[in-house]
Hints:
The protein is built from seven helices and ten strands. With 218 residues, it is of the alpha+beta class. It has helices at residues 7-20, 38-43, 59-65, 84-96, 108-116, 158-177, 192-197, and strands spanning 26-30, 47-53, 56-58, 76-77, 125-128, 134-142, 147-155, 182-184, 187-188, 209-214. α3 (59-65) packs antiparallel against α6 (158-177). It has two domains: 7-52 and 208-214, no CATH class; 56-201, 3-Layer(aba) Sandwich (Aminopeptidase), CATH 3.40.630.30. It starts with 6 loop residues before the first helix and ends with a strand. Helix content is 34%, strand content 23%. β6 and β7 (147-155) form a beta hairpin.
Amino acid sequence: MDKDIDSEILIKMYDKFKSVLPRSNEILQIHRNHEFYERLINDNGFTEFRKTYEPEVDIQQLIKRFLNEDFEGKHTSGKFKMTDALLKITEHVYRSIHEMNPLKRMDLSEWKDIITDDLDFEHSIIIYDRNDEIIAYLMMYENEEPFKDVGYCYFKNQEAKNSLSAEFHDTLLELKKQNFTHLNLEVDNTDIYPYEFFHDFIEHDPPSLISYMKTENK
């Protein structure tokens, strides 16, 4: 569409869109040619609220970055299971980082359906402290070989992050043995956990998606 219409036509299309739909918050997501939409964004009061990075990273590069350091017995990792405790903390974390574009109200069973769709239980990670509190997790998702997708990520503090890094290193080695070669990341700059955890792999890349919001006063 970018090649076939100019910005004037785009603005007219947007004005038509506004006239037929009810007044509400509007979200504009732009994958490419950001300068093409500059006038539409500026003239209509859109504000950037999120950048999304989607690099495809070689597993060998990840192995070099994430070191397998000793837990010193403070934390334990077990077989990944989707428990009620994990459902609650994942939903809480998700809601806390999506306040501008909030998740609709739903019960835990519906949330479970969302986050377990294509979930790779074998390679997902969960870490507990000595009191069996969940202090970190990283969920892996199925894709066509030789790829895996990285999904939800959280760590309570720096020690939990270090433990997650160590477990992730071991998971990467296992994936390499199984002939997987790359991980697909999807990292929002508003999601502090994966943004910090994978920062080295996105800091020099342009975002693949920029999201803008226009809030209607009611």
